[in-house]
């Protein structure tokens, strides 16, 4: 007869699975494109970018948090597009993020056990040619953080916003993400 698995071992395996699936705070999320982003609409150095962040119904996010996230996304796009020069005249684009999930989680719960107190940022990004407000492309982006212990407790939503902003900038500038590095 096979002995039942101890409860603590089952919980530890579950926590490890959640951690491995969620990644760490510095892992840039990959976009899921719902429309084509062709090379002619990639944002590059001569282009001007406006960033707008709004929330879906039922999402709790303060106006200050929306502004902070918009500024981070703009800064990441501006720093990414500097390295991508194009010979043509600059265009103006609007990057509109509609946040569908914003959860700051609970640092105490994360400290107790990985997988508890998770932080989430999810949304749909639409890129528009301006001033005609013509859709150039769109994608969805999700970032979840679920590490436990001191690392989990010490990680803030602002750090998760940074990597979320990296994901947006990577997608709209056409930069390729490197495959995730395997930890040894």
Describe this structure in words.
This protein has 184 residues and is α+β, with helices and mostly antiparallel strands. It has a single domain (25-173), classed as Rossmann fold, CATH 3.40.50. Helices cover 35% and strands 25% of the residues. Strands 1-5-4-3-2 form a five-stranded mixed β-sheet, covered by helices on one side. The radius of gyration is 19 Å and the shape is elongated. The model is unreliable at 18-22 and 177-184 (pLDDT under 50).
Task: Give the helix/strand layout.
Layout (H helix, E strand, L loop, with lengths): L6 H16 L9 E2 L14 E8 L7 H19 L10 E12 L3 H6 L6 E12 L3 E12 L3 H6 L2 H17 L11
Parallel strand pairs: 2-3
Antiparallel strand pairs: 1-5, 3-4, 4-5
Helix pairs in contact: 2-5
